Amino acid sequence: MPVAVNHLSVILVSQDALQSVQISQALGAFSPLLSMPAPKDGLDALQQAQASVLILDMRKGEEALFDWIGRLRQSHPATGLICITEFSRLNDKLRALRCGADHVLTSPWQPDELSAMLDNLEQRFTANETPVAPAQDFVLQLDTGFRVLRGPRSEQALSRSEFLLLLAFAKAPQHQLEIWEIYDVLQKNEDNFPKQALEAQIYRLRKKIRDSGAGKQILKAIRLQGYQLCNPIKIN
């Protein structure tokens, strides 16, 4: 049974042991991975525990897998579905999306691609959740001495990058940072830190803010510009 970490748990359906290792490494801090050799096993696992995301290896192009996607969608409509296909099999990618896949990874794939897809699914799950109301008049507090975010639900230890980024959001006008400003705070650039890696960094920070007890709106993406912090934060 998958154990949820940061609200995500993942089941992989694949007969490829190397693929399982690669995906497990790519998930990293996102969530644990439960590997299953066949679609039926994955469906059985979903019956026992509602995993957040199922990753289906479709690289062998088996026709029955498309019907299986349809059955999955009928029985578990809320589960996120990411399919893996070969780069050369464009028709498989299109069919998987039409059958109900949320995202399709084309092999060979990069870990940052999977991170961005998980981030997108996490935002969808968060939007559908009933938010836990923060304590009345409680303001999130950023402790600069201990590099800790304190909220009504818990304290969250921050990495150096997370701390600098959250501090910059808290101090920025309207709590908004453009993409180039985020790169500047992290002392990175697009050559050594691609956009997908930046999105993964935002994902991890968003999770810690929410887990501290913030409401549903946390870090809002502003199309083609950057991100905006939606929660007031007191700097101590």
Structure summarized in a few sentences:
With 236 residues, this protein is of the alpha/beta class.
Question: What would the keywords be for this entry?
Answer:
single chain, 236 residues, alpha/beta, Rossmann fold, Arc Repressor Mutant, subunit A, 2 domains, 5-stranded parallel beta sheet, 4-stranded mixed beta sheet, 8 helices, 42% helix, 21% strand, elongated
Task: Break the fold down into its secondary structure elements and pairings.
Elements: E1 10-13, H1 17-27, E2 33-36, H2 39-48, E3 53-57, H3 64-75, E4 80-86, H4 90-99, E5 103-107, H5 111-128, E6 140-143, E7 148-150, E8 155-157, H6 160-171, E9 176-178, H7 179-186, H8 195-211, E10 219-222, E11 226-229, E12 233-235
Parallel strand pairs: 1-2, 1-3, 3-4, 4-5, 6-12
Antiparallel strand pairs: 6-7, 7-8, 9-11, 10-11
Explain this structure to me?
It is a single chain. With 236 residues, the chain is an alpha/beta fold. The chain has 2 domains: 10-128, Rossmann fold (3-Layer(aba) Sandwich); 140-235, Arc Repressor Mutant, subunit A (Orthogonal Bundle). It is built from 8 helices and 12 strands. It has a 5-stranded parallel sheet with strand order 2-1-3-4-5, sandwiched between helices. Helix 1 (17-27) packs across helix 5 (111-128), helix 5 runs parallel beside helix 8 and helix 6 (160-171) packs across helix 8 (195-211). The model is unreliable at 1-6 and 130-136 (pLDDT under 50).
